[in-house]
Design brief:
mainly alpha
Length: 54
Amino acid sequence: MSGLFHRFLRDESGATAIEYGLIAALIAMVLIGALTTIGTKISGTFNNVSNGVK
């Protein structure tokens, strides 16, 4: 039983998966923030063009 516990403590495969998950979540948050900002600016630009065409 002691050997199983020590093997469990040395196993890092779960930690790697968690790290990749955290990196993916961070990238997703940055993309969402950037796309929201860009979307708002593009929407304003299209509204200006639309008003200029009328």
